[in-house]
Amino acid sequence: xxxxxxxxDIPGFGKLEIRAIASDFTGTLAFDGKLIKGVKKRFKNxxxxxxxxxxxxxxxxxxxxxxxxxxVKKIVTLKGNxxxxxxxxxxxxxxxRHVAVFGNGNNDRLQLKSxxxxxxxxxxxxxxxxxAADAILNAHxxxxxxxxxxxxxxxxxxxxxxxxx
Length: 165
Prior knowledge:
Blueprint: E1 6-10, E2 14-18, E3 20-23, E4 30-31, E5 34-35, H1 39-46, E6 51-56, H2 63-66, E7 74-77, H3 83-94, E8 99-103, H4 109-118, E9 121-126, H5 133-137, E10 141-144, H6 146-154, H7 156-163
Helix pairs in contact: 1-6, 3-4, 6-7
C-alpha cells in the first residue's frame, strides 16, 4: 500500500508532493554520532506518510545503533569515493520530485541539488557541526537544527511561509 505523502501548495513556488525523506546522518540527524533528541519522535510521526531513508558515510560508526527501533525504511552506508554522486543517484532513483532531502556536508550537495532542481525539497541543516557552503547553495532552505527541518513537513505552513513568493 502506497503511503499518503505530504502535499504542500506554496504560492509562487509550486506544489510539493513529498513521498520520501532522504537524509544524511552525521551532522544532520546526529551530533558527534549521537542521534539528536526529538528526531525519533518526528520520524515516528512522519513514517506513516513517508518512507524514510538515511544515507551516510557513518563517520562515527553509530548509525545502526542510534536508529534502532526507529521506522527507517533503509539505511544506506556509503563506501569508497564519490559519495556525493552515490547520494544523488539514490535520490534520483527514488524520484527527486517526491523527495525531501536533508544534509549538511559537501557530500550532500548533489543530493540537495537533485531535489532542488527536480521539484522536491532541499534543506541544508546545521546542528552545530557546521554546514558546508556548497550544501547551503544547493538547498531551497537553510535551517538551524534537524527538528526545525523535520517540522517543515509536520507543520507544512512553516514551509509555505518560508518559500512563498
